[in-house]
Amino acid sequence: MSFADMDANSVMEDRERAILVGIDYRDNASEYSLESSLDELARLTDTAGADVVATTSQRLDSPNPRTFIGSGKAEEIASMCRSLSADVVIFDDELTPSQQSNLEKVLPKDVKVIDRTALILDIFALHATTKEGRLQVRLAQNQYLLPRLRGMWAHLASNRMGGGVGSRFGEGESQLEVDRRMVRKRITSIRRELEQVAQMRTIQRAARYDSGIFKVAEAGYTNAGKSSLLNRLTNAEVLSYDKLFATLDSTTRKLVLPEGREVTITDTVGFIQKLPTTLVEAFNSTLDEIRGADLIMHVVDASSSERDLQMNAVGDTLEQIGAQDIPRLVVFNKIDLVDEEDRAILASRYPRAILVSAETGEGIDGLMDALARAVAAQEELMDVLVPYSKGSVVSLVHERCTVLAESYEENGTRLTLRAPRDLIALLGQYSVQ
Questions:
Q1: pLDDT mean over 380-400
Q2: What is the value of pTM for the model shown?
Q3: CB 223 within 8 A of CB 242
Q4: Predicted confidence (pLDDT) per residue in 107-120, tens digit
Q5: Which residues contact 268 (CB under 8 A, 6 or more apart)?
């Protein structure tokens, strides 16, 4: 167990005081260490607006089915709450409804008990800005809330009135059923709204797909700098902060490559270890932007001591959403924070990766060239002669293809080009053998 107290004077009055709790599993099959997971939980806590005043853990084979941690440990944390004036205790894994209810009975009444999933949902609620983003968060919140309603009404069940008139009206269980119906209705209503919003997004996405424009989707661990990189590449003004989950809503911008070819690049929600499955489901339409991409640009924080684990977490999530077979370009961002020795290690271990800094602009030209090569790899080299009467075809070529050479001959415009797959059949009829 580690125990770290903070000076009360250093804590802002409007920020809550949090104690973090984790389990050090004896037979830990996960590649994530307890220290790594709790460090990330501390960053999530800071993003949510609370200060960590203590961190504690217990070594167990598996969680205690009643209180997640042992009963003695729960009493110890209750004592810590009183001595440190803690407002909230945050557990690093998802609590069952009964575990949360039992812990609330042990800890001081004015101390909230939440888990990692609830903390992430709280952060998502803070940062969702679009209608779709807010609906997605509300869906995940209600899905999380539904099985926990019984614990919330336990106090009514234990304080029922005695027998007689009025004793059978408004009991906890009755109210529980009413609330369950309300939450289920809410989930159904939100899903219906999300379907309508998703239909509009699908129409917009279909228009981009039908246009044949090459689609790049940014994916990466939260706070890897995806939004900053999008801003640097496209001169966009997408919100970017040094916080976990600073942006949730996907943003698509047009990018012009060195040879004049236009592509779209989409910034998507960041990933994280132990990403709750309810969030993956709720953000399904946003994640469609990744599933429908021609290329995934995997952005990695080069300066992070956990970068290998973060890369694995992103790979696991991409597999979870069915995007594991889409071509991938690894981009190490924040290279300005990495020393020469570490740069050499990255270049050696990932020879095909691109090293950039969205902050300084270093490596951006190399990234643009790599994107151009990735586009070219999915195109077919063609030599065509388009009659002068087919000027619209020449315009289409300039808009959608990479033109390598162009000349004007007696019978038409001669073009050497790289064509996307959906134009090969059309241009094939003008092919020069």
A1: 91
A2: 0.70
A3: yes
A4: 999 999 999 988 88
A5: 217, 218, 219, 226, 250, 286, 287, 289, 290
